[in-house]
Amino acid sequence: MTQHPDALDLDKKEDQRLKAEVFLPDDYQPVEDEPFMNERQQEYFRRKLMDWREDLLAGSRDTIESLQDGTRAIPDVADRASEETDRALELRTRDRQRKLVAKIDQALRRLKEGEFGYCQMTGDPISLKRLDARPIATMTLEAQERHERREKVHRDD
């Protein structure tokens, strides 16, 4: 059974209301000596992911506007080619960011389900430093390195 879009909006609003109850000072930084993925850490990463997501979406909106406004006839062939190259690069960048937004959404889902911060390969906690640097990380640094070594070995075959 699928939920009505309005029901999803209500879920989001309820989730936001519940999360707003977690007090988080502006200068809060997760530290290793507090319980892993406690409410404050979860809220810290939720806000970090949501802010990152909003920045990416705002950039996408700006790109769409500039591409719509930027359609003009450029008589010089070299200038037109340069502008087309710039547009292609911008679109590739936005496509990568679209994929990043999907990964952010997955991280937010893991956060909601209580799986955020734990390695998908080993189940071990991912270091707070790694999560702070890359909040979409799904593996510990060691598991990621093993994964990349295996990938490289298979690619070289």
Task: Chart the SSEs and their pairings.
Layout: H1 5-20, H2 39-69, H3 77-113, H4 128-133, H5 141-156
Zinc finger (dksA C4-type): 119-143
Organism: Pelagivirga sediminicola
Protein name: RNA polymerase-binding transcription factor DksA
Assembly of the depicted chains: single chain
Mean pLDDT: 85
| Overall geometry | flat
CATH architecture classification of the largest domain: Up-down Bundle
How would a textbook summarize the main sheet?
A: none
CATH topology of the largest domain: Four Helix Bundle (Hemerythrin (Met), subunit A)
Pick out the low-confidence regions. 1-5
Level-1 CATH class name of the largest domain? Mainly Alpha
User: What is the radius of gyration?
Assistant: 21 Å
Assign the structural class, choosing from mainly alpha, mainly beta, alpha/beta, alpha+beta, or little secondary structure: mainly alpha
User: Gap between N and C termini, in Å?
Assistant: 46 Å
Beta-strand content:
under 5%
Subcellular location: Cytoplasm
Function: Transcription factor that acts by binding directly to the RNA polymerase (RNAP). Required for negative regulation of rRNA expression and positive regulation of several amino acid biosynthesis promoters.
Subunit structure: Interacts directly with the RNA polymerase.
Pfam families: DksA_N, zf-dskA_traR
List keywords for this structure.
single chain, 157 residues, mainly alpha, Four Helix Bundle (Hemerythrin (Met), subunit A), 68% helix, disordered N terminus, metal-binding, cytoplasm, DksA_RNA_pol-bd, zinc-finger
